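Form 7-S
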Amino acid sequence: MVRVVNEDLKPLLADIPHTTLLIWGEKDTATPVYQAKIMQKLLPDAKLVVLKEAGHYSYLDKFPQFCKLVTRFLESQPAC
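Output:
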């Protein structure tokens, strides 16, 4: 598990062709916001939303806000 967690996948991010929504907790200590900012820069089309007062499980800490963000994001994407 340690090897999986520590594997550097940053070189692959530039090859992701899809619009990406990154949702991060402001108080995430497992994967701090600076890591989200790195991902945002390396992804060709990414938006980062940092949820205030949320931790690593920001989708649980701020569930209603998370749902609104995801819904708006999905509605803004072209149909497949």
